[in-house]
Design goal:
Elements: H1 12-21, E1 43-45, E2 50-53, E3 59-61, H2 70-78, H3 84-98, H4 108-122, H5 134-141, H6 150-174, E4 179-187, E5 193-202, E6 208-217, H7 224-237, E7 244-249, H8 253-266, E8 278-280, H9 282-294, H10 298-312, H11 315-327, H12 344-356, H13 358-368, H14 376-399, H15 410-421, H16 430-447, H17 452-460, H18 465-477, H19 481-507, H20 516-520
Parallel strand pairs: 4-7, 7-8
Antiparallel strand pairs: 1-2, 2-3, 4-5, 5-6
Helix pairs in contact: 1-2, 1-4, 4-6, 7-8, 9-14, 9-16, 10-12, 11-13, 12-14, 14-15, 15-16, 17-18, 18-19
Length: about 525
C-alpha cells in the first residue's frame, strides 16, 4: 500500500514504521557475518523471527535474507525510551557502522515520508520543493529522486496531521480521567478570526500531555454564542463532552458569555454541574494588573520608545550610539529592541535595556539635539517601575510555562504579588505609592477571591499543603471569622472532590478505596 494513498498513516511513527515494512531486500549474508553490526548491541534475538529492543521492549521482525536497516531506524526515529541527547549521540558515533552502502536500496516512499516529517519539524514553507535548487541538490545524493510539488507536500503533511489526531483521539478515549482546555482567538492580517483549542491531561503513566486539537476559523462577529458553538462542536467531534473538567480563557466579556452558554448546555455531564468550569487566565490577569501600572508612566514610556525607535531606524544613528558606548566601555548594539505595547513584559524589558544604556542615550540626546529624550524625573520613574515590576516578570514566566504544570504555584505567586503591593516602603516614593494603589484595585477585582481549583492544586503540592494556605489566608483576611470561613469553604470542596475521585475509582473496580485514616483527614 502506498504510504500516502487513500488511507493516511496511523501516526507519525507509523510514517516511518510503514516505510520500514517495505525496506530493501538484500542478498543473504553468511552466518558468520550476520550479527557483526553494532546495532545488535541494542536488540535481543529471541530466535522466533523476532528481535526485541532492549530500550523499549518493542518486537521487530527478523526475516531470513533481510538486512538490519530497520533496526537502527527504530532506534533513531521510533523508540520512545531513547532521549534526544542519546539518539543524537547514536547518530554521530555509530551511524556510519549501522548503514552499509553496498546493501542500500533507494526507497522513494521512505524518502518522501521522511521529507514530510522534516518539513513539519523545521516548519518550512511548502514552496521549498519548487526551488530550482531543491531537486538538483536531492538528485546529487540520489539520482533516482523525483521531487513533488508543494500541493503534494501539503497533502502529505495534512495526512500526518490527521494521523496524529487519530492517535490523540484514541488516547483520549481510553483516558479514565478528565481533560482541561485552554483557548484563545487569533486574528490574521486579513482580519479573519481563528480559535485555537488545546487539550491538557495526565496520561496513564502520570505524565503531563497537551495537544492542539483544533485551529478553526470562527464566524464573525466573535460573540459569546459563536465561541460557545465552535468550542462545543470541537468537543463533540473529539467525543470529549463527557470528559471536560475546565477551560481557561482570557478575561473578556465575550468569553464570560461563552462560558455561561457552555455551562448551561453541558452541566449535566460535568462535575458538580460545571460549577468550576471557567478558569480565568492568571497570566492575562497579571498582564492587566501590570498594564494598569504602566498607564501611570505613559509619557515616560513614549519618550523612551520614541528615542529608541529614532536611533534604531537608522544605521548611521546606531553607529553614533555605538561610538558613545565604546567610549563608555559598554558593548555595542546591533539593534535596539522595541516593545509591543500590549505586552507589558516586553515593555519592561525595553525599559531595562534603556536603563543599561541610560548614560549613552542621555549623551546622544545632548550631542545630537534633534530629538527630545526622557527627563531626569522620567528616568527615575522608569527605574522605580522596573524595580517594582521585576517580581511580576518572574511570576509571568511561571504562569506561562508550557512544558510543566504550574497550577500548584498559584497561591504562592499571588501571595507574593499581594505582599509586594502592600509593602510599606512604597510610601517613600509618590510614583510607587500611586502605582501600588492602582494595581491593588485591579488585583482585588480578579484575585480578591482566589480560584478554588488552583487553590486545591496548591494544597496537593507537598511543599505547601494546607498549612501554607492557612498562613496566607490568615495574613490576608486576619485571624477572625473571615479567614476561617474561607478555609472551611476550601476544606469542604477538597472533601467533595476527594469523594468524587474515590467514587470514580470504585466504579472502575480498580480496588482503590480510602482507608479510615484517609477519611479522617477531612474530619479534622
Amino acid at each position: 500500500m502506498s504510504l500516502f494513498g487513500n488511507q493516511p498513516p496511523l501516526s507519525v511513527d507509523a510514517v516511518v514504521e510503514e516505510s520500514e515494512s517495505r525496506s530493501e531486500t538484500i542478498e543473504t549474508r553468511s552466518t558468520q557475518s550476520k550479527k557483526k553490526s553494532v546495532v545488535w548491541g541494542h536488540f535481543v534475538d529471541t530466535g522466533d523471527k523476532k528481535v526485541v529492543c532492549k530500550h523499549c521492549g518493542s518486537a521487530l521482525s527478523k526475516v531470513k535474507g533481510s538486512g538490519t536497516s530497520h533496526l537502527p531506524r527504530h532506534l533513531l526515529t521510533s523508540c520512545k525510551s531513547i532521549g534526544d541527547e542519546e539518539r543524537a549521540n547514536m547518530l554521530t558515533t555509530q551511524g556510519d557502522d549501522w548503514f552499509d552502502p553496498s546493501t542500500f536500496k533507494f526507497d522513494p516512499e521512505l524518502t518522501r515520508g521522511l521529507l514530510t516529517l522534516f518539513f513539519i519539524d523545521a516548519e518550512l514553507p511548502f514552496s521549498v520543493t519548487e526551488s530550482r535548487f531543491f531537486e538538483p541538490a536531492m538528485r546529487s545524493l540520489r539520482p533516482e529522486y523525483r521531487s513533488v510539488g508543494r500541493q503534494t507536500v501539503r497533502e502529505d503533511c495534512v495526512a500526518v496531521f490527521k494521523a496524529g489526531c487519530r492517535v490523540a483521539l484514541a488516547e483520549l478515549q481510553e483516558l479514565d480521567s478528565r481533560v482541561s482546555f485552554t483557548s484563545d482567538i487569533w486574528t490574521s492580517s486579513a482580519n479573519l478570526g481563528y480559535l485555537c483549542l488545546t487539550a491538557h491531561w495526565i496520561d496513564k503513566g502520570f505524565q503531563f500531555q497537551k495537544r492542539i486539537i483544533a485551529f478553526k476559523k470562527i464566524p464573525y462577529p466573535h460573540s459569546g454564542q459563536a465561541v460557545a458553538d465552535l468550542v462545543e462542536k470541537i468537543w463533540t467531534d473529539w467525543k470529549l463532552d463527557d470528559k471536560i473538567f475546565a477551560i481557561t480563557l482570557d478575561n473578556s466579556s465575550v468569553n464570560d458569555l461563552a462560558v455561561k452558554h457552555l455551562e448551561s448546555r453541558l452541566s449535566e455531564k460535568m462535575l458538580f454541574g460545571a460549577s468550576h468550569m471557567h478558569m480565568r487566565c492568571s497570566a492575562h490577569i497579571l498582564n492587566l494588573i501590570a498594564q494598569e501600572g504602566m498607564k501611570l508612566i505613559h509619557t515616560t514610556l513614549e519618550n523612551i520608545r520614541e528615542l529608541l525607535r529614532h536611533i534604531g531606524s537608522s544605521g548611521s544613528r546606531l553607529q553614533v550610539l555605538n561610538s558613545i558606548l565604546d567610549e563608555l566601555n559598554l558593548s555595542p548594539k546591533k539593534g535596539l529592541a522595541l516593545d509591543c505595547p500590549t505586552r507589558w513584559n516586553s515593555t519592561l524589558l525595553m525599559i531595562k535595556e534603556a536603563l543599561v544604556l541610560k548614560g549613552a542615550l542621555k549623551r546622544y540626546v545632548n550631542d545630537q539635539g534633534s530629538i527630545k529624550g526622557p527627563s531626569l524625573e522620567e528616568w527615575n520613574n522608569a527605574e522605580d517601575m522596573a524595580t517594582f515590576l521585576e517580581p511580576f516578570l518572574d511570576a509571568i514566566k511561571i504562569f506561562s510555562s508550557v512544558r510543566k504544570p504550574s497550577s500548584h504555584t498559584y497561591i504562592k505567586e499571588v501571595w507574593t504579588i499581594r505582599r509586594l503591593l502592600l509593602l510599606e516602603n512604597h510610601k517613600d516614593s509618590a510614583i510607587l505609592r500611586e502605582l501600588a494603589v492602582r494595581m491593588q484595585k485591579k488585583f482585588d477585582k480578579y484575585w480578591e477571591n482566589p480560584n478554588l481549583i488552583l487553590t486545591l492544586a496548591t494544597i496537593f503540592d507537598p511543599r505547601y499543603k494546607l498549612i501554607f494556605l492557612v498562613f496566607c489566608f490568615k495574613k490576608a483576611y486576619g485571624e477572625g471569622s473571615e479567614a476561617n470561613a474561607r478555609l472551611d469553604y476550601v476544606r469542604d470542596w477538597l472533601k467533595k472532590y476527594y469523594e468524587e475521585y474515590e467514587k470514580a475509582c470504585m466504579d472502575q473496580d480498580s480496588g482503590v478505596g480510602s482507608s479510615q485514616g484517609e477519611r479522617q483527614i477531612f474530619k479534622k
